[in-house]
Amino acid sequence: MVSETIRVRVRFSEVDPIRMVWHGNYVKYMEDAREAFGRHWGLSYRLIFDSGYYAPVYDMHLRYFATSTVDDELDHHRFMVAQAWSENMFQLRNNKSQRWRAGSEGGDNTALHHTFRRVGNI
Questions:
Q1: What is the value of pTM for the model shown?
Q2: Looking at the DSSP assignment, which residues form a beta bridge with residue 81?
Q3: What is the CA radius of gyration of the chain?
Q4: Which of 19, 92, 36, 21 is nearest to 62 (CA)?
Q5: Nearest to 32 by CA among 92, 108, 83
Q6: CA distance 13 to 25
Q7: What's 22's DSSP letter?
Q8: H/E segment holding residue 39
Q9: Which of 60, 65, 105, 117 is the most exposed place for a label (fewest CB within 10 A)?
């Protein structure tokens, strides 16, 4: 299995009035991991576009298990499933263990994200 992990510190501008990361920012974090994965494994967006292809997301599933707030460090782990580069799995973990929900469905994950992309010619 090929994978890549990045660490991101939650910024003040990414939290909502109740001091939790706004839910839409998790997708942005996970796209950052996808771009890092692409650079690491030679599948950058630039290469895809310059080769005359595109790969839009056509299906996305995101499940939240715990919260994150300002200055939390999040590890974003991106990996390919079943050697199909169009199917992407992400795990997001908060490195402050006291925020993890022990015994929850997500284990020690803050969020899990699953996307599918269709590949086509431009």
A1: 0.73
A2: 84
A3: 15
A4: 92
A5: 92
A6: 10
A7: -
A8: helix 25-41
A9: 105
Contact 121, 102 (CB under 8 A): no
Between CA 57 and CA 45 the distance in angstroms is: 13
pLDDT 10s digits, 33-86: 888 888 888 888 888 889 888 777 777 778 877 788 999 988 887 776 654 445
> Distance between CA atoms of 14 and 38, rounded to whole angstroms?
24
- Tokens matching residue 118: 């269709």
- Residue at 101: amino acid letter: R
Residue written as tokens 């974003």? 76
Q: Which residues are within 8 A (CB) of 66 and not within 5 positions of it... i.e. 6 or more apart?
A: 94, 99, 100, 101, 104, 106, 109, 110
Residue 33: φ, ψ to 5°? -65, -40
3-state secondary structure of 103: coil
